[in-house]
Amino acid sequence: MKILVFGSLNIDLIFMVDHIASPGETVSGNSFIKSAGGKGANQAAALAKAGMPVYMAGKIGRDGEFLAELLESYGVNTGGIVRYEGATGQAIIQLDHSRQNAIVLYSGGNGAISADEVTAALNEFSAGDLVVLQNEISCLRDIMEGAKKRGMRISFNPSPCNEKIAELPLELVDIFFVNEIEGAALVSMPPRLPSEILDRLVECFPLAEIILTAGKDGAYYGCGTYRAKGDIIDTPVADTTGAGDTFTGYFLAAREKGMPVTQALAAACKASSIAVSRMGAMESIPFAAEVFCD
């Protein structure tokens, strides 16, 4: 069994601000950090740091070579990352004193992935392998349909949850990772309790596993009639960027290691709690020894 993360690679430009800018407002940054990010890269790093063999596919420009090098340092196989003459994806992140963020994305190479590149990447994988997706790259339909034709399993994090989601064959997804806002949007619900959103998601996607993260309220799991919940570990928050990606990577790693759902939820909640106590996205993700130490 192999894990392929086919997703975004971004250069994160993080500005520490007193408060997140409102429309028409200019705010001064107190400090600035340039770091590695992108939901795809973050999830690949989390899987690798959790001890899983993982392959990364995506697209970067010359300015993003350090992203591939960092992933390789964590043990990620980066042979599926395509280089091109354009810009790597960019994320401009405002981070305030309460450690909440506002993010502006420029797709760059993430939006320039072609159908031929999808085929080339998927040809290295076969039945039973897992492909991990997010909504930050082009050709997602091609990836989903191509993966299913090969008998692969599909994990999907529909973030950002925008109008493109409606164009995707979501019935092909085996595992959904959503937060409360994304989960409600997927099933056209107004804001509700996490358990109510989860029940509706399970009803709409009866063949899939649903994992719904709810911030300080922890994480919820639903599949068929089975339900489970994981609780966060209360830690001082330095930066919430990448917390959801850390959760996704560690939950998938725990399940692929054969752990039951409740143990996987506990590990993923612990990993994301550690991540938010540190600055940065990819760099803040803990290693397996910090999480699977009990």
Topology:
Elements: E1 3-6, E2 10-17, E3 29-37, H1 39-49, E4 54-60, H2 65-73, E5 77-83, E6 89-95, E7 101-106, H3 115-122, E8 130-134, H4 140-149, E9 153-157, E10 175-179, H5 180-186, H6 194-204, E11 209-213, E12 219-223, E13 226-230, H7 243-256, H8 261-276, H9 288-291
Helix pairs in contact: 1-7, 3-4, 5-6, 7-8
Describe the structure.
The chain has helices at 39-49, 65-73, 115-122, 140-149, 180-186, 194-204, 243-256, 261-276, 288-291, and strands spanning 3-6, 10-17, 29-37, 54-60, 77-83, 89-95, 101-106, 130-134, 153-157, 175-179, 209-213, 219-223, 226-230. Helix content is 31%, strand content 27%. The model has no long low-confidence stretch (mean pLDDT 94). The protein has nine helices and 13 strands. With 294 residues, it is α/β, with parallel strands linked by helices. It is globular, with a radius of gyration of 18 Å. The chain has one domain (3-9, 38-89, 110-291): 3-Layer(aba) Sandwich (UDP-N-acetylmuramoyl-L-alanine:D-glutamate ligase), CATH 3.40.1190.20. α3 (115-122) packs parallel to α4 and α7 packs antiparallel against α8. α4 links the parallel β8 and β9. The strands form two sheets. A nine-stranded mixed beta sheet has the order 5-4-1-8-9-10-11-12-13, with helices on both faces. Strands 3-2-6-7 form a four-stranded mixed beta sheet. 47% of the residues are buried.
